[in-house]
Each structure stands twice: as C-alpha cells, then as structure tokens.
Give the backbone structure.
Amino acid sequence: MKRILLMGNPNVGKSVVFSRLTGADVIVSNYPGTTVEFTKGAMVLDGQRAEVIDVPGTYTLDPTIRAEQVAADMLPEGDVVIDVVDATNLERNLNLTLQLLQSGKPVVVALNMWDEAGHKGINIDVERLEGLLGVPVVPTVAISGRGISNLVSRLDEAQANTYPHEDDDRWSQVGEIVEQVQRVTQRHHTFLERLADFSLQPETGIPLAVVVGLVAFALIRFIGEGLIGYLFDPLFEKLWAPLVMRLSELLGPGGFWHELLVGKLVAGEIEFVESLGLLTTGLYVPLAMVLPYVFAFYLVLSLLEDIGYLPRLGVLVDTIMHHLGLHGLTIIPMLLGLGCNIPGALSTRILETRRQRFIAATLMAICVPCMAQIAMVVGLLGEFGAIGLVPVFGTLALLWVVLALIFKAVLPGEAPEIFIEIPPYRIPALRATGQKVWLRTRQFITDAVPYVLLGVLVVNIMYVLGIIQFLGHVLAPVITNILGLPPEAVAALLIGFLRKDVAVGMLAPLGLSLKQLIIACVVLTAYFPCAATFAVLLREFGIKDMAKAAAIMVTVALCIGGLLNLLL
Amino acid sequence: MIISAAEMREGQTGLVINLSGGHGMVRRMQAMGVRPGVPVVKLTSQPFRGPVSLQVGATQVAVGFGIARRIMVEVAG
Ligand SMILES: Nc1nc2c(ncn2[C@@H]2O[C@H](COP(=O)(O)OP(=O)(O)O)[C@@H](O)[C@H]2O)c(=O)[nH]1
C-alpha cells in the first residue's frame, strides 16, 4: 500500500489537509504542537487504498526537539511526501521544503493558507515557484477544501531530488527563490494584527486576559444553565420521569431490577440525583447535569483555541509560571483539563522535557477538576453560594501553587525557557470550530456515559454484596478520624475511581454538613484521577512514574482533607 | 551598536549578528528563521525579565529572557 506523508512546519494546516484527504475526524487547533504523535488515515488514490500519515510539524529535518525527532524518523517510511507550506510565511517554510527535496523522497507542495496570503497582500507566482523547485506546487485553502482535489490529482507527478544544494547554503537559496516568486504589497495593519499586538503588550494584554477569563466563565455559565433550565430539566422532568414512574410501578419498589433500573424512590418520587438507578441517576447526571456544561466549555475553549489566543496567554503567564518552576505553556494542559482530564493529560505533550510533563500531569490530576465534576460540585454546593464554592475551588488553586513550589524544590532540573512561534490571530472557520465542539462533545457522550452507567451499576452491586458496608467499616478510621466524613462516604470515594461526577452526586443523599461537603469535594478531586484518565497517564508516563504520582496524590489528598477538617 | 535582543527597545529593529547558547537551541532558532544577517523587530517584553517577542520575517516568536540575551543584534545609534 502506498504511504503518503503530510509534512510541514507546525501550524500550517496539515491536520486540516489530513481530514480533507481521509475524511477522518481530527482535532485542529491554532497553536503549534497540536500534532505531536502521528495520526494515520486512509484514502483512495487511483482506485487503490493509500495510507496517509499526518506527521508532527517540524521546522527542520535536523531534529531539535522530540516532535521533530518523530518527524525525521517517519520520513524514510513514506513513499511520497505532501509538503504543506504556509503561503503567508514562504521563506521559513521553504527551508524545510528544500530539505525534503533533498531527502530522496518524491515531493509535491501544497501552498496552503492561500486565502490568508491574499488578504495579507502576498502574491506568489506559483508557476515560477513550480519551475524553480521542479515539483508540483498547488495552492490550497484546506479549511474550505479549495485546491485539495487538484493536489490529489497531481500526486503522481511527485519528484525526488530536484533541488540539489549544500546544507550551509540553504537559507540563501531560499532567499533567492522568495526574491523571484513573491511580491508583497504594502498595506495597513489589519484589525486582527493590531489586536494581536495589543494582547501581548503587558499593559493591555494582562487586563485583556482577565476580561477574557471573566467573559469565558460567564458564557459557560450562561450557556450551561440555559441548556439545563430550558431544555434538559424539562425533558427529564416532564417526559422521562413519568415513563420511569410507570416502569417503577410495573416492577414494584424493592426488587433487584427496580433497584438497578430505577433505584430508590424518595418520598414515592424519583429523585434524579439520589435514586441511583441506571435509568434515573445514570442518565440524568451525565446528560442533564454535565453535558450542557461540557458543551458550553468546549464551545468557548475551541473558539479561544482557533482564534489563537492560548499561546499568547502562555507568554503572558510565563514569568509567573517560571517562579513556580513551570513553563508558560503549562497553562494549556490545565485549561484543557478543566474540560476533561484526558485531553489535558495528552496535551502535556506540548511541553519539552519529561520532568515538565510529569509535573504538569500530576498537578492537573490533583488540582484540576474536570467540567463533569465542576458541574456536580456547583449543583451540590451552589445553594450555599460563595461560602460553599470558594473554599473548594480556592483550596484546589492554592494547592496547585503549593504543589508546584514543592515540585520545583524537590525534583532536580528546571523549567526550560519558553521558545514558541506565536500564530497570527485567525477568524475561526465556523464549520471547523463547530465540528471540533461536536467531536469533543460526542467524545464525552460516548466515553463518559458508559462509565457513568458502569459506575451506577457497580455501586448497586457493591451494595447488594455488602462490599461498601464492609469497606466503610474498615476504612472508617481514616474517613472519620482524618477527614471527618461519615463511613458511608466511602462509597462515593470508591466510585470516584470510575467517575467523579457520579461520586459527587452520591454525596447528596448523605445529609452532609457544609464543612463535610467541602472536604469531600476537595478530596474527591485530589485523591486519584478517574479510571479513564489514569489509563491515559499510565500510557504516557509508564508504571514507575505513575506509581510515584499515585503515591503523591493519595498523600496530598489525605493531608489537605485532614487540614481542612482541622481548620474549617 | 551591538546589543542583545533583551536590551532592544520595543519597536526597534536590529540585524542579527550572532547567536550563542547550546547547539540545540541555536539550531532551533535558526530553523525558526532567527539567524545571522536577518532583521528582527522587537515587539514586546514582559515585565520582570519575562519573555520577549520578536518579529522575524513573517513569523512572530516568543523567547525567554535568557534566550533573548543570547541573540546579539546590531542596532542603529
Ligand atoms: N485561513 C486559513 N486557515 C487555515 C487553513 N488551513 C488551516 N487553517 C487554520 O490553521 C490552523 C492550524 O491548522 P492545523 O491543521 O491544526 O495545523 P497543523 O499544526 O499543521 O496540523 C487552524 O486554526 C486551521 O483552522 C487555510 O487554508 N486557510
């Protein structure tokens, strides 16, 4: 099978080209480093299946960081290379193109971002460029699909070794090519460019960051609450509840199937949060309490990503982060982790050193609650207002800072200095952003809902078998003496290994005091990541590091829970 | 006058003269387009020796203060 490699500088649109070619769903973002591992897909070429590989972005084939090493290692595996070039940054991109042309692999060039080049007054003589390079050069606009079929039809014209030159001479060769093919018309700075300058100037950028944060928060709340209040709650209360009540009457309360499907009735009624049946709590928690916030969060985050705001935020917070022993870009896994810890854990790959990745992942797993959990905590403690919510999220934030400082002092090494390309601001393509929000939301539905149902099932089974009662008894000293929680809370802590949202929901019927609720919510966040996140972390960091991380998590959770118990 | 990129004023243009630092770092800077003979414009600098952002050709890069100090540029006056 023919193997096609997509190669190019970071953030030039390779992933979009990839999804155009293969029809595969991939997540695309406007910052360098989105594709650190390669992605594989398939397409049909001249009636035959061909493999397409989206190779991590690289500036050079002479690798300087891990992602670039992956790219350099991939090259010998390919039969033909599609070199995706950012037409708005021809000079830097051609440096890699010339290296590829010399690598012995047949190459075609996709001159992507052709639309943006036009807007920026950049004029490229494509025929001339094609003549100079000796390989096909096809202008493309990956986000709209323009030029892609042309690109595919010219794949068989790919040529190898068409531009012999000395390595030392490459930049000047590039300079000569650009001189001959590119004309730039002078023009005024666009609004987006001025906004870009504005958001990096500390005097204006820091206030802007605060405003962006507040607006993002308000939007998530507004959308999340709106969806719950006007859509999901009415659906569940008016349509679903009567149906389940019917079933309840049919099965008769008390029986095994009733317990499992409907759960316990509270005062003869279904309580969607407390009943703990598969059809009540098992559906209501993920769909009506969590999903609206997950959707709202991803909508806002995806917009910020696609505009290109996140790397700028990384630069703005870099100084503070370095005082904490972290790299500015650590902010990105933390923000993604707020949605779901799994993408958060994966995005630690944008950090350069293993030490940085380990610290970021551990901090996130301990201190960053995912949206599912946040939604439940807000549902549980929201009625107390600030006195309920501030202690929970404030403690976690403070813990984040303290742990970062401890890691800085204890783990040998330091955070490398920031060194990133800052992408231009882009107006998000609605289709692409919409698709990303949909992909992420769908991922939540397909990944989370089964776990929630499994969680509810496991609770029921463990109650039936008496396991929870037994463990409550055994662990009572820790839970009661250190954390000040009733023994029944052990059930929530156990389920927290599976799903944190269900676990928080299980606190509702226990009749806990405000203090106990705060402690339980903090401990549930910190003591261990959920199973799905743990699996990802294990894959990323290996068993040894995860054993270390797990020990840190449990210790920290007990300490902070005990401390809160003493202080509050 | 030869100064480092960290010392440039905002908006000032300079011609890169020399890069120092680890081999990997120098190579990486070069690959991003920061190399001797190329003009750079300092865009912003964050307070307390925070990152410095530079315009190099069509690229904007942000580099830590320590890295910026190792990018030597020739500026007018
Ligand atoms: N205007 C415009 N934007 C594009 C084009 N292709 C990709 N983008 C955007 O450029 C950004 C980077 O794309 P991505 O595929 O993640 O780049 P990769 O890092 O090379 O895989 C995303 O925000 C895309 O929506 C294009 O042809 N025109």
The domain at 3-187 of chain A is CATH 3.40.50.300 (Rossmann fold). Chain A touches chain B at residues 59-60, 62, 64-65, 88-92, 95, 171, 196-197, 200-202, 205, 311, 315-316, 318-319, 322, 328, 416-422, 424 (CB under 8 Å).
